[in-house]
Amino acid sequence: MDQLKITVVQSDVTEIEADVLVVNLFEGVTSPRGATGAVDSALGGLISELISDGEISGSASELTLIHTPNSAYPNFKPSRVLIAGLGSNKGFNTDSARKVSAAVIRKLRVVGVQNAAMIVHGAGIGNLDASSSAQAVVEGVLLGAYRFLKYRTTDKKRKSDLAHLIVVESDSAKISSIEVGVDRGIAYSEAEVLARDLVNEPANKLSPSDLADTAIRVATENGLECTVLEEADVTALGMGAFLGVSQGGPRPLKFIHLTYEGDKPNAENNLWLIGKGITFDSGGISLKPGAGMGKMKGDMGGGASVIAAIQAISRLKPQLNVHVVCAATDNMPGGSAQRPGDVVTAMNGMTIEIDNTDAEGRLTLADAIGYAKSKDAVRIVDVATLTGAARVALGDGVSPVFGNDDELLNAVLETSETVGEPMWRLPLDSVTKRQNASNIADLKNTGGRGGGSTTAAHFIADFAGDTPWVHIDVAATSMLDSTRGWMTAGATGVPTRSLIELAMKLGK
């Protein structure tokens, strides 16, 4: 969306000057209280009357717009009131606040509103912490309003986005907490929007070089160190797995390393975020079917999420050293492409039989993890649009995760729940591990059809070794065909906010 100005104001909601004032109502409430009650009173009990008549129920994301002309209500300044239904009070959480805020912002766009005021949903009888609920509201607004319109030139009927949102609260004791939540919500959302923008870019507009340029820009704007290794550099480091993937396409590879030093005296207090960066995946010689191949522009979703995450991390400043790595390249079937049956040697010396060239992401991750370990990585989290089997296993609403360290795994799962990006742990069992065995090399890059997400994770685990490591497979969750709450159709940005939250948790 266009740049949205968000301000926090302490005020009586009836005194706020805005085109629309957004208040809320839980399901089953017949006599509104709090901010909604104050509005009801100023309107002579109109909201209560509409509830009694059955026109307002408070059901989740129900939106009721009321015109409040000054001639009729001289003591009420907002021009209109929007009643947002919150659903049941039982189980109301930050996800609920995000969803209703997303519905609200899209409604305001349809109405053509430029200036709106909104209370913090859930911070009253919803029993949510004021800061957390404010963050959720802002995330719902900014992410729910997202549109990728960069290449749309003929849409004459397009409605403009909201220009100014006032977050209004009457209780002065809550203002500072709300301001903290708003600031965090902006940082988290702007990062996830960046990830969405990168994934939504067509492959002819986003090459490995373009992805590297984005990383350099993020570094420059936020005081980060950025190193970009070229083909000669990764060759010297022995990254044969990464080089094998890149050799079929004409666009030069880029190995991107971003560094945030939030605890510089303690270099061992580090977290490495590694993202798959395949800017277009044709499958290589093992060519993918044509149907749906266009979505393979998004095969760099993992790389996009880690680059975007460090943008927010650098602004929020956790006491933690965070490194971001993305091995960026295309996977193409050119005349020099690697072949099924080839053997490559990874940076750590392990040999890999190429069973299928479409299992390329794990090869790039192998060398990225090898690089991280050579730099004394203490904790590693990798993110990749890795396997179609992830969708078969869990659908497109939950990302499977794997790992070798319960403490780090639990931290990832907890943070994903906090931000509303669901994940589920799957096992690394001994049976599926055997499927990666090779007769001529240390291992194969595929393990057959059964347990495809797990065999891919086993492959990566062999390179992580004893270093605490978690793998997040976002193949099904990084893009959606239709809008779902604050996740709009197209790129979702998942799991950018989970990674930010993880860094904040570890860096307390």
Give the termini separation: 32 Å
Mean pLDDT: 97
Quick one: biggest sheet?
A: 8 strands, mixed
Q: Under the CATH scheme, which class of the largest domain? A: Alpha Beta
Stretches where pLDDT is under 50 for at least 5 consecutive residues are: none
Q: What is the CA-atom radius of gyration, in angstroms?
A: 25 Å
Output the CATH homologous superfamily of the largest domain.
Zn peptidases
Task: Report the principal-axis shape.
Answer: elongated
CATH topology (level 3) name of the largest domain: Aminopeptidase
Which strand order do you get reading across the main beta sheet? 7-8-10-9-13-17-14-15
Number of helices: 15
CATH architecture of the largest domain: 3-Layer(aba) Sandwich
| Beta-strand percentage range | 15-25%
The secondary-structure class comes to: alpha/beta
Number of separate structural domains:
2
Helix content: 25-40%
- Give the tally of β-strands: 19
Can you describe this structure?
- This protein is α/β, with parallel strands linked by helices.
- It folds into two domains: 5-169, Leucine Aminopeptidase, subunit E, domain 1 (3-Layer(aba) Sandwich), CATH 3.40.220; 190-506, 3-Layer(aba) Sandwich (Aminopeptidase), CATH 3.40.630.10.
- 36% of the residues lie in helices and 19% in strands.
- It has helices at residues 34-42, 46-52, 94-111, 130-144, 175-200, 208-222, 231-236, 240-246, 301-316, 361-374, 389-394, 406-419, 430-433, 452-464, 496-506, and strands spanning 5-10, 20-25, 63-67, 80-85, 115-118, 164-169, 225-229, 254-261, 270-281, 321-331, 343-345, 351-353, 380-384, 399-403, 423-425, 443-444, 469-473, 479-480, 490-491.
- Strands 7-8-10-9-13-17-14-15 form an eight-stranded mixed β-sheet, sandwiched between helices. It has a six-stranded mixed β-sheet with strand order 1-6-5-2-4-3, with helices on both faces.
- A hairpin with a 5-residue loop joins strand 11 and strand 12 (351-353).
